[in-house]
Automatic annotation (TrEMBL):
Lineage: superkingdom: Eukaryota
Taxonomic path: Eukaryota, Viridiplantae, Streptophyta, Embryophyta, Tracheophyta
Compartment(s) of residence: Cytoplasmic vesicle, Clathrin-coated vesicle; Golgi apparatus
GO terms of biological process kind: endocytosis
Keywords for the protein's UniProt record, in alphabetical order: Cytoplasmic vesicle, Golgi apparatus
Region Disordered: start-end pairs: 223-269
GO molecular function, one term: phospholipid binding
Biased composition regions of type Basic and acidic residues, renumbered to the chain: 223-258
Compositional bias per record (Polar residues), positions renumbered to this chain: 259-269
Protein known as: Clathrin interactor 1-like
One Gene Ontology term, aspect cellular component: plasma membrane
Ranges of residues in domain ENTH: 26-159
Keyword tRNA-binding: no
Length: 269
């Protein structure tokens, strides 16, 4: 049986190699940081995508090139859903749900052809040795995503709700700007608690789910120490102010805008 020290060294070596591979891909290919982050956020690892990654991906989706790459990865993850490798598809749904509520308006139309794949996930059944019903959790999430894609009224209502919630959080967080530097440096080590409070669809059932993610014996991981998060953390999740007026949204104008114009639109918001 491997010693804890050997396991720790192995984990560090694996992390080091992964970082080197990312650096090489960025240097030698046309891959973008947002693309690599989306791949990592929707891989088969047992833990859910972290808050910082979701925030970065959400903002990157407003840039044309990254938008196409992010959507393409999500399509592939949904297409690869099966009974053995389901976590990547599940995490893709988590990210898609967030993007539907916080990302570009046009993203809802991108997944019209994926509705049958998402419906198939509703039939997934799996209860782990801890007694957690992953099938039920995935079923609830897939139904919500389907409703966002199919019901335009519900889609717009949820975007307004998410936008108002984000504005409230950002306004409250502005009272503690002096602590923003510390918060920024600690984002990488954010616990799952941050995700519970930031995601646009996260209830008590899913809060329990995050705990199971970190304690499941099948997938060994060290749970980070949870501590009360500063209010500024939430600014990363949905910083772009997404006006529901199609005429003022960057993706509802000329689809051939340059990356610079889209980024400036995001920054101005």
């Amino acid at each position: 049986m491997s010693s804890p020290l050997f396991y720790e060294l192995k984990k560090q070596a694996s992390s080091f190699l992964k970082e080197k591979m990312k650096t090489a891909r960025l240097a030698l290919t046309d891959a973008t940081p947002a693309e690599l982050m989306t791949e990592e956020a929707t891989n088969e690892n047992p833990w859910p995508p972290d808050t910082r990654s979701i925030g970065v991906i959400s903002r990157a989706a407003f840039e044309v090139d990254d938008y196409c790459r992010i959507v393409d990865i999500l399509h592939k993850r949904l297409l690869n859903f099966n009974r053995k490798n389901w976590r990547g598809s599940y995490k893709a749904l988590i990210l898609l749900e967030h993007l539907l509520c916080h990302g570009p308006l046009r993203i809802v139309g991108e997944f019209e052809d994926d509705k049958d794949l998402i419906k198939e996930m509703e039939r997934f059944q799996y209860i782990d040795e801890k007694g957690f019903n992953w099938g039920l959790s995935l079923r609830k999430l897939s139904k919500r995503v389907l409703k966002l894609v199919e019901d335009e009224v519900f889609f717009r209502e949820e975007r307004v709700r998410a936008r108002n919630l984000t504005r409230g959080i950002e306004g409250f967080g502005s009272l503690s700007l002096q602590r923003s530097s510390f918060i920024d440096s600690s984002l990488k080590g954010s616990s799952l608690k941050t995700y519970e409070r930031s995601n646009s669809h996260y209830n008590d059932h899913q809060s329990r789910e995050s705990q199971v993610f970190s304690s499941n014996k099948k997938f060994v991981m060290k749970e980070e120490l949870e501590k009360p998060q500063q209010n500024d953390d939430h600014g990363d999740i949905s910083k772009p102010d997404m006006n529901l007026d199609k005429g003022s949204h960057p993706f509802c104008q000329d689809e051939h805008q340059t990356a610079e114009s889209l980024l400036s639109t995001v920054n101005e918001s």
